[in-house]
Amino acid sequence: MLSKGLKRKQEEEEEGKEALAVDTWWLGPGHPAVAHAPPAVASRSLFDLSVLKLHHSLQQSEPDLQHLVLVVNTLRRIQACMAPTAALPPMPSLPTAPGIADNLLASSDASLSASMASLLEDLSHIEGLSQAPQPLVDEGPPGHPTGGAPPSLGALDLLGPATGCLLVDGLEGLFEDTDTSMYDSELWAPASEGHKSSPEDGPGKEEAPELDEAELDYLMDVLVGTQALERPPGPGC
Amino acid sequence: MVLQPSERHYGDWNHRRLGPWCSPTGSPAPLSCETGCGEGSWILVCRLLVPTQVSLLSMEEDIDTRKINNSFLRDHSYATEADIISTVEFNHTGELLATGDKGGRVVIFQREQESKNQVHRRGEYNVYSTFQSHEPEFDYLKSLEIEEKINKIRWLPQQNAAYFLLSTNDKTVKLWKVSERDKRPEGYNLKDEEGRLRDPATITTLRVPVLRPMDLMVEATPRRVFANAHTYHINSISVNSDYETYMSADDLRINLWNFEITNQSFNIVDIKPANMEELTEVITAAEFHPHHCNTFVYSSSKGTIRLCDMRASALCDRHTKFFEEPEDPSNRSFFSEIISSISDVKFSHSGRYIMTRDYLTVKVWDLNMENRPIETYQVHDYLRSKLCSLYENDCIFDKFECVWNGSDSVIMTGSYNNFFRMFDRNTKRDVTLEASRENSKPRAILKPRKVCVGGKRRKDEISVDSLDFSKKILHTAWHPSENIIAVAATNNLYIFQDKVN
């Protein structure tokens, strides 16, 4: 309740500041112009924008790695700036990135970093699935390439604890005969351990219904399978 | 090349607005690479288009591409996104100018030869060859489409009658041979003129086949395909001064290739962390030293440049030199890192300096001084207060290139609103010009442009808020020895040259 009140108050302040040049708000905490605007509001709006950019970037079939890294670094910078002012920021007003924003905003600093890192880890996982031959790593004197194909670097990335679940989900995703919405949701799985439950907990947004339907389908499959085996249905069905 | 002060002269420039494939009118333009940019003006030699239909026509057999392109007048309204030029590069003599576009095509222009009858045509470039370099591909395992867009073209030094160039998209580098054929053999004994086998019973005499002249045909053939070596997107290729090797760089790795070997490459730089959680920096550009075959540089998204010596170790993860300018505390913001990301790095022709382009500036570094650049030029500092908007519309991620002139005395880079900027390193003068069809008038001097940053706007100035950020000059090229520049604006290629009285 207190956070809601704080949110409204800050929004009123934001409306009152509309007369200011918007651009000066983004010049960073060190800039003299920022003294005229509440930095928390500026940072939060920029944070929301960056989260949206991150979401859009990862929606690409093959994200631009430079763009992604720069946006992530900017997010980390904003987060570091926002950390001292700390109450959890309110839910973002952008409806198109609810899942990611929910996860990122609800996380602590450490898990946010882990979320960002896991998103990058996703990329590595996707790249690692490729069977294309890797360039030879020259471990000998110049002019003497190592023989044979080196181990896929992508495989090494799957061994991290942060991606343990991803590995399992990814393999299951490869062999499951499911619709593509499951694959899409897989991308966000490592963003938070609680991601799969967030559509149930969070406010209803555009992406939440799709996840619920997919989960319902999965549950139905399980039900049909268990009924066929003459097992009692599991809890929660 | 030694510059003599007496050879510097600034002439009266005449500007001519020309249509596609038209020849320039007026007196010829004697050229000198020593001419600076500040006082003089530039003339538009020609505006070239790379239309889709021309490319399709050139794919047919036995057609003289040059004839078709010379007589083919295109309306720019037919241009598609595939026609957007993505790279421009002169060859080592400046005789040829290659462009690559988003559709995976390469178009090579050749300079009109100087002739006594048509002296005024010198400096004009006409289409020489057009070919489809890369096709869109699909990675079935990752369900990813590989774009055919040509990211870079690099010429090899000419060693025989044929021309060789490297072209690359995100994943694959190709070596192309461009050669002329102006003779064909005639008088075969076993084949008739159409190439069909003759009945041996009808052959009663033997003759020696002879070579007879034919209409010039320019053909491009792929000689090597260097594939499957890059997991991430290739952003740079650079030919080594040994002319035997070249390197290709993607976001996290740099590979060294031998031109003769396509099935393996050496990985010489790998900045991919073992744990991707630690990834905070990517490679943005790389280039070999123009004279020292063991030395190369690569730039990063954090605004750093690393110079590496391949003699030090096989894997050049440890740099020999590290160039970085400390951040200015007064300009620090959330966007500091983004605007410091280097989009292009180029060695000077002398090999003594490197030039880097980040979002707002061009910097010149002395290889012997790592802690700061020796020169910094503001390209469009008026955008500093607009960074949020530019972040919102992603313009802040635009990758501008930069080029040296032949004598390393002038540097050039692009900006928005079809503006491009030149900086004279000696006089410290700079000029802003526009590559635009609408603002070009025949027989008028190309007028320097000025952006009004505040206060009262003068008549010929343009305000910052009126700039068109969709019209960006990302790719430019400078002739290796003369003051001829090529500027790519969407699907248009403008060629400008200076003129001396």
Automatic annotation (TrEMBL), chain A:
<dbReference type="GO" id="GO:0005634">
    <property type="term" value="C:nucleus"/>
</dbReference>
<dbReference type="InterPro" id="IPR052262">
    <property type="entry name" value="E2F-SERTA_domain_protein"/>
</dbReference>
<feature type="domain" description="SERTA">
    <location>
        <begin position="39"/>
        <end position="86"/>
    </location>
</feature>
<dbReference type="InterPro" id="IPR009263">
    <property type="entry name" value="SERTA_dom"/>
</dbReference>
<dbReference type="Pfam" id="PF06031">
    <property type="entry name" value="SERTA"/>
</dbReference>
<feature type="compositionally biased region" description="Basic and acidic residues">
    <location>
        <begin position="193"/>
        <end position="208"/>
    </location>
</feature>
<protein>
    <recommendedName>
        <fullName>SERTA domain-containing protein</fullName>
    </recommendedName>
</protein>
<feature type="region of interest" description="Disordered">
    <location>
        <begin position="132"/>
        <end position="153"/>
    </location>
</feature>
<feature type="region of interest" description="Disordered">
    <location>
        <begin position="190"/>
        <end position="213"/>
    </location>
</feature>
TrEMBL record, chain B:
<keyword id="KW-0853">WD repeat</keyword>
<keyword id="KW-0677">Repeat</keyword>
<dbReference type="InterPro" id="IPR000009">
    <property type="entry name" value="PP2A_PR55"/>
</dbReference>
<protein>
    <recommendedName>
        <fullName>Serine/threonine-protein phosphatase 2A 55 kDa regulatory subunit B</fullName>
    </recommendedName>
</protein>
<dbReference type="InterPro" id="IPR018067">
    <property type="entry name" value="PP2A_PR55_CS"/>
</dbReference>
<dbReference type="InterPro" id="IPR036322">
    <property type="entry name" value="WD40_repeat_dom_sf"/>
</dbReference>
<dbReference type="InterPro" id="IPR015943">
    <property type="entry name" value="WD40/YVTN_repeat-like_dom_sf"/>
</dbReference>
<dbReference type="GO" id="GO:0019888">
    <property type="term" value="F:protein phosphatase regulator activity"/>
</dbReference>
<dbReference type="InterPro" id="IPR001680">
    <property type="entry name" value="WD40_rpt"/>
</dbReference>
<dbReference type="GO" id="GO:0000159">
    <property type="term" value="C:protein phosphatase type 2A complex"/>
</dbReference>
<comment type="similarity">
    <text>Belongs to the phosphatase 2A regulatory subunit B family.</text>
</comment>
